[in-house]
Design a protein that fits this description.
2 domains, Alanine dehydrogenase, globular, binds magnesium ion, binds pyruvic acid, NAD, 8-stranded mixed sheet, EC 1.4.1.1, alpha/beta, 15 helices, binds 1,4-dihydronicotinamide adenine dinucleotide, oxidoreductase, Rossmann fold, AlaDH/PNT_N
Length: about 375
């Protein structure tokens, strides 16, 4: 199969869909891999590294899309990239379609087969292709939040861990999944006073077991959320309902009642964000202030630590890329219900229920399209 790796073009996005070692693996199975010149240069993977791995280097994204049947990326296609997508293409990347009507419309119109990393599952119902980036973003969220609490960025001027004689900052983490647990570990490490809110008792039990009395856990209700949020210096938004738009758990009224200079890091912004006041920002301009509350809402946080993130992502995507290339997308999807869970759009139909509900399309069972 012909596999294509375009250079990422989102703001300060330096990750790359395939590293040379992944390319080498696919070429070893007889596939042709077309890599856009400079695709990995920013994180130390030169064009020569790719050539030695067996890739064919091409000058522009147009040529990658022209040559390839399977397109492997990191972030969702930007408008200019979407114009190059054809029915013969299979796209394998993060999509986050529920809050993105324009992208959904374009993918549906393209006729392409679009598989979202973030909804591929594993045997335990987890999200193995989202997990490594959630580990990264969870860890980064506390760094970002600590930075935003500094006075010159509009923050309260509070040090997360406090100092002897002065209380530490209060950190509330909404959603105790992969992002939430990694955020908790960092916040505990820095000496903050940490509360994690989740609606899944198993998650809360696991957190209690892991962190003991270093954190407090709270069952998520409108009341507990309200209390925790308005008393916090730093709130991390890390909820997820797979494929769906994030629930707006932090209302405008709660933001109004938060202390001046407190901070919301809404990691869930890639699914639309869990605060009513959240809107996506970029690494260039990561924060804005509403009612005195600093909002950090960067939708591609792991792009800032692109080398670590790319390696972690390739570790988990490579087996699926190999299956798609070796068997062809149809057979690979028929053979593996976990990969099939990643299928969001195919042949002009939306094949993921939560995405269809959020974007106004009729849901089509992917099995009817695949003839399984
Ligand atoms: N901005 C960025 O750069 C990145 C964003 N993310 C996003 O972070 C979000 C979280 O991802 P993960 O931690 O991997 O998901 P996860 O599935 O591991 O955890 C989500 C948690 O939210 C909880 N939850 C759902 N509804 C809730 C409610 N009403 N109240 C309290 N808790 C609730 C679930 O029980 C679950 O424990 C996702 O939207 C993901 O796409 C992930 C990586 C990078
Ligand atoms: C998951 C995601 O949105 C990212 O890694 O950028
Ligand atoms: Mg206020």
């Amino acid at each position: 199969m012909k596999v294509g790796v375009p250079k990422e073009i989102k703001n300060h996005e330096y990750r790359v869909g395939m590293i040379p070692a992944s390319v080498h693996e696919l070429c070893g199975h007889g596939h042709e891999v077309y890599v856009q010149e400079g695709a990995g240069a920013a994180i130390g993977f030169s064009d020569e590294d790719y050539r030695q791995a067996g890739a064919r280097l091409v000058a522009g994204a147009e040529e990658v899309f022209e040559q390839a049947e399977l397109i492997v990326k990191v972030k969702e296609l930007q408008a200019g990239e979407r114009a190059m997508l054809r029915p013969e293409h299979t796209l394998f990347t993060y999509l986050h379609l529920a809050p993105d009507q324009a992208q959904t419309d374009d993918l549906v119109q393209s006729g392409a087969t679009c598989i979202a990393y973030e909804t591929v599952t594993d045997h335990a119902g987890r999200l193995p292709l989202l997990a490594p980036m959630s580990e990264v973003a969870g860890r980064m969220s506390i760094q970002a939040g600590a930075h935003c609490l500094e006075k010159y960025l509009g923050g309260r001027g509070v040090l997360l861990g406090g100092v002897p004689g002065v209380s530490p900052a209060r950190v509330t983490i909404i959603g105790g999944g992969v992002v939430g647990q990694n955020a908790a570990a960092m916040a505990v490490g820095l000496g903050a006073q940490v509360t994690v809110v989740d609606r899944n008792m198993e998650v809360l039990r696991h957190l209690d077991h892991r962190f003991g009395n270093q954190i407090s856990t709270l069952f998520s209700t409108a009341h507990t959320l309200d209390q925790a949020v308005i008393e916090s210096d730093l709130v991390i938004g890390s909820v997820l309902i797979p494929g769906a738009s994030a629930p707006k758990l932090i209302t405008r009224d709660m933001v109004r009642r938060m202390p001046e200079g407190s901070v919301i890091v809404d990691v869930a912004i890639d699914q639309g964000g869990c605060a009513e006041t959240s809107k996506p920002t970029t690494h260039d301009n990561p924060t804005y202030i509403v009612d005195g509350v600093v909002h950090y809402c960067v939708a591609n946080m792991p792009g800032a630590v692109a080398r670590t993130s790319t390696l972690a992502l390739n570790n988990v995507t490579l087996p699926f890329i190999a299956a798609l290339a070796n068997k062809g997308p149809g057979q690979a999807l028929r053979d593996d219900p976990h990969l099939l869970a990643g299928l969001n759009v195919m042949a002009g139909k939306v094949t993921y229920r939560e995405v269809a509900e959020a974007t106004g399309y009729t849901y089509t069972n992917p099995e009817t399209l695949l003839g399984t």
